[in-house]
Every structure is written in structure tokens, then in C-alpha cells.
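Aim 2 progress. For Adaptin, the working sequence is reproduced below.
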Amino acid sequence: MSRDSPPGSNSGLETVGDEQKNRSVEQTSDEERATGIVAETSDESVEPTEFVDSVVETALTNPVAAGDAIGDLLAIVRDCDEDARVAAKEALDLMGLLRPVEFEVWIGDIVQFASADRDELSFVGLRALAQLSAVRPAVAKNGLDAAISRLQAQHVPTRRAAIAVVGEVGEAFPEAVTQTDRQIMTAMRDANPSVRLAGVMTAGKLLGAEPNQFPRTVSTLPETLDDDDEEVWEYAHAALIHFVREHPSQVPEKRHVIERLATVSDEELSVREGATKDAMTTLLSYEPGFDL
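Predicted C-alpha cells for this construct:
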């Protein structure tokens, strides 16, 4: 696995509000990276699962050092037996949760995984891209073509991960994902609630960024307010509130949306206090003759 600097990297910039200290490799001190380095897989005495365990242990105390093992974890996912592959996938997911910026220097390998024909490999790559895109969308954009090509994958986890990449990258670069409008609409109507959830979450990001580029997504989001899955229902309302806050004039069916928001509370939707009322007040300003 290579560890070259990624194309399109913005790694020289500081991350705003970076509570996890997600600095790029160039911003990480030698002392910090050297402490707690995990065992090298070239040591034949170390079994793959044992190596993965050591990476996890290191990640929990020093995720910067554990980042050096990402290439080895990817190789284990690709080449080893099922137990080792499962453990390596879980370790990669943990790294993505603790310090996703560590995926940055492995972007070439991650994009290769995301582009793979094997669903198992594609999912691992897309999941890492989705996690990376939350902190380095310009870098994750290198894998956007791979994500778009898997938006209708039969493998549900792969499809969800691809939708997530579109949402995260699209929030920063909406013009790069305008061709996904139909697929996001389809995702919000999918038979699988987890796919609908991914679609709704992505819709909220895209419509908060540039709604006029996603007309099908705009018209479909209000439909999801009636979803029978509790989590989809909750995120649909939260996504709509975000849409209202950013682009109120472009919200369709304003009266219907106002009526629906009048029946829910901030606590139910897990949004900040006053967000629901603010959204209703904003929409009412566009419907001066409407009386609840």
C-alpha cells in the first residue's frame, strides 16, 4: 500500500472547530507519531488478527500512531481470512471515528477499494471516504466517481456508504454532485429504511448547500415527513428545518411544512431549542395570509 501525498489535498490548512485534533500528517509532530507505533506486519511471527488487535489498542490511546497501520489493515481486508478481515474492517471503522484525517495520505488506496468490484472492498473504501469527507471533503472528492457509480449497488451497506459520500462531499462542493439528484430522490423512496435514512440525511446536506441544483430532492423531501420509520421521520424533519434555515424561499409546499412542524417539538427531533419555532416563523413570513 502506498503512502503518497493525496491529489487535491488541502492538508496544509487547519481544520476549523477540529475538536478531535484532526491535523494532517504535515501538521503532526515526529514525537507524537513515533510514540506507540504498532508492530510491523513484515514480522511473520505476528498473526493478522493479533496485529489488528495491537492496532486497536494503539488507536484507543494514540490514534495518530495507529494511522501508520491503515495500509496494513487494508491489505488484511483484501488478502486474509474472514476473521482477520472482519477485525480489520472494524479497526478501520474505529480509526474513521477517532481520527478520520489519518485516511488522507492513503487516499489512493482507499479510492481503489471504493472502485473495486467486490462489495466487501468497495464498502470499506466508501465508508472510509465518507468518514474522511467530514473533515477533508476536498481530499475525499477524489473518490466521488467511485461513490456515484455505486449509488444503486445491490449491496445495501455499499449503497448507504456511497450516498453518505455524496452528502458529505456535496455539502462542500454541490456542483460536483448535481448529477446525483435522481439517485438521492430514489434513495429517499427506497424499500429499506436504512437507505431512506441515508437519503434523507444527504438531502439535508445538499439542500442546505444549493437546493436549486437538486429539484427532485427538493420535491421529495416533504414526502419523507410521513415515513413510518421513526429514525427516518426524525431526520426528515431535521433536514427540512436545516433547509428552511438556509434557503427558506425555495422550500416547497410551505403551508404543508408549517402544519407539520406545528405538530412536533425540538426535543422530539433532537434539534437545538427554538429551531422548530424559528423555521415555522420564517416560513410564515412567506405566507402572510395563512393562519394555523
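The domain at 179-291 is CATH 1.25.10.10 (Leucine-rich Repeat Variant). This observation will guide construct design in the next reporting period.
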